[in-house]
Write a structure and sequence with these properties.
two-stranded antiparallel sheet; about 375 residues; A middle domain of Talin 1; mainly alpha; 4 strands
């Protein structure tokens, strides 16, 4: 219990757990949907942080190979749970927008903010350009794979299926499933590569997962780590259902689109804890870790979360095709190309970070006004 108490006290987001009883009260007394949505979103943030922390502690007990698998599998658990709830509710545009938003958010917002904070504090920072460039190139390949069904759909003029019956006879669905299979296979190859330790500048690294330093946080026992993972996952699942339940009412009352809600708000809610860690690493002049967190998280969204949702959506009765609108594809390619350019020289400055943030803000405004 002493370890558990220390774990909770060491997490600066623990105070946000107050949002959980507040969410219950909001549901019980029938508060406005916007208030329920805001409280549920606040409640997800610390639980997502606990999932990440417990995963790191559990990985410390299992060794490097199993630890890499745990980190790769549970790295975006909170956002995956939110999108599963959205698929069950049939909010497929929100799901696809959250995939896009997660990738560009990590590459532009998180990486840009990290560069600004680190650059202002330490001046120009260096990182392993070989590792960062390799990950960025893998991301280019992943985004190209994500875009192929969209280009195919536009070229053939084929309508995306809506029902499971239609999905079974649609070339779009067949192509989406084929792309999903290839991407999951590529993800598995990445995990295989992660299971083979290699040394780059004296540090063991992986193209998909990253282990964060937790020397300042007391390690939990295996049982405590599993318990926190289980409780936090259940909590995120409940709050995600709450978010999705009031999402349409929020969209109507506030006047924002389902698309904007998915591309900006959902990724921030599910990943804010991981984003803060990336910025903290940059502030500590550990830009290698900061770039690894941002790019690896995007890789996991593209190579695992998106194709996994394609298969899961069939089981849930709401087929999800990997068809994105033209502006989404443009935003994805722009974010990836900029990341490749920034990674080429192995050095970052606050001005480069400000440029990434500027592009993210411009895209955010465009997504807000996009019908």
């Amino acid at each position: 219990m002493k370890r558990l108490g220390s774990f909770l006290r060491a997490n600066p987001l623990s105070w946000m757990l107050l949002a959980l009883p507040a969410t219950l009260a909001a549901q019980w007394f029938g508060w406005q949907p916007v208030m329920v949505f805001a409280l549920a979103a606040l409640g997800i943030i610390p639980l997502a942080s606990f999932i990440g922390g417990a995963t790191e502690d559990l990985a410390a007990h299992t060794g490097p190979q199993a630890g890499a698998l745990l980190n790769a599998t549970l790295g975006n658990a909170a956002e995956l749970i939110i999108t599963i709830a959205a698929v069950r509710a049939g909010l497929l545009e929100l799901v696809k927008a959250s995939i896009t938003g997660s990738i560009i958010g990590n590459l532009l917002l998180v990486l840009g903010f990290s560069m600004v904070v680190g650059g202002l504090r330490h001046g120009p920072q260096t990182f392993n350009k070989t590792n960062a460039s390799r990950n960025a190139i893998l991301l280019v390949l992943a985004v190209i794979a994500l875009g192929i069904p969209s280009v195919f759909s536009a070229s053939m003029g084929v309508r995306a299926p809506v029902t499971v019956t239609e999905a079974g006879h649609s070339p779009i669905e067949a192509l989406s499933l084929g792309v999903a299979i290839v991407m999951l296979a590529f993800y598995a190859l990445g995990l295989l590569d992660a299971s083979r330790p290699r040394r780059v500048r004296g540090a063991q690294e992986s193209p998909i997962s990253v282990s964060l330093p937790r020397a300042e946080t007391p390690h939990l026992s295996i049982g405590q780590s599993i318990a926190i993972l289980a409780v936090s996952t259940i909590g995120v699942a409940w709050l995600s259902e709450t978010l999705v339940t009031v999402a349409e009412a929020v969209i109507t009352s506030v006047g924002i689109s389902e698309f904007f809600l998915g591309i900006i708000l959902v990724p921030l809610i599910g990943n804010v804890a991981e984003h803060l860690v990336a910025v903290q690493m940059a502030a500590k002049d550990k830009m290698d870790l900061s770039t690894e967190i941002a790019i690896s998280s995007s890789l996991q969204i593209a190579l695992f979360v998106a194709p996994f949702l394609v298969f899961l959506s069939l089981l849930l009765g709401h087929p999800l095709q990997l068809i994105f609108n033209q502006f989404e594809l443009l935003a994805l390619m722009a974010a990836v190309v900029i990341t490749v350019l920034v990674s080429n020289d192995g050095e970052s400055t606050w001005l480069e970070g400000a440029g990434l943030l500027g592009i993210y803000l411009i895209l955010g405004l465009a997504f807000f006004f996009l019908p």
